[in-house]
Amino acid sequence: MSNSPSDAAEPTGDLTLRTLAMPADANPAGDIFGGWVMAQMDLAAGMRATEVAMGRVVTAGVKEINFRLPVKVGDTLCIYINVVKVGRTSMTLDVQAFARRALTSRREKVTEATFVMVALDEAGKPRPVHPRTA
């Protein structure tokens, strides 16, 4: 387990999602699957982007995700979101995942990534993030 300063960093951004890591999400060693962690990050990014866009969004891309530390069964996964940039139809979000270790108050950054989300209209086509009102 790494003890670098970045692992001990405090989260930045808004706490957007908290969920409990359950046995069904783990491999036989008790580590939570990385795909489950990434899915929770995508869910949180979608929630925050929907608020910013005031409507439907989709994930257009995820830039480099590195799993620093494992999440274990019983940990609470906390996802923090920073809106980094809002463009015409897309936005860039910094997504940080922290694990609050089971039965302790210890919190560790387990992964982070940059998500790019695109606002869509009713037909599924890109639309301005902040549509003009008539």
Automatic annotation (TrEMBL):
Supply one GO CC term from the record: cytosol
Q: Outline the extent of the HotDog ACOT-type domain.
A: 11-123
Gene Ontology biological process: acyl-CoA metabolic process; fatty acid catabolic process
On the tree of life, the source organism's domain of life is Bacteria
Q: Pfam families given for it?
A: 4HBT (PF03061)
Carries keyword Ion transport? Answer: no
Q: Name one GO molecular function term.
A: long-chain fatty acyl-CoA hydrolase activity
Q: Any idea what this protein is called?
A: Acyl-CoA thioesterase
| CDD domains noted in UniProt | BFIT_BACH
The UniProt family comment states: Belongs to the acyl coenzyme A hydrolase family.
| KW rRNA processing (keyword) present | no
The alphabetized UniProt keywords are:
Hydrolase
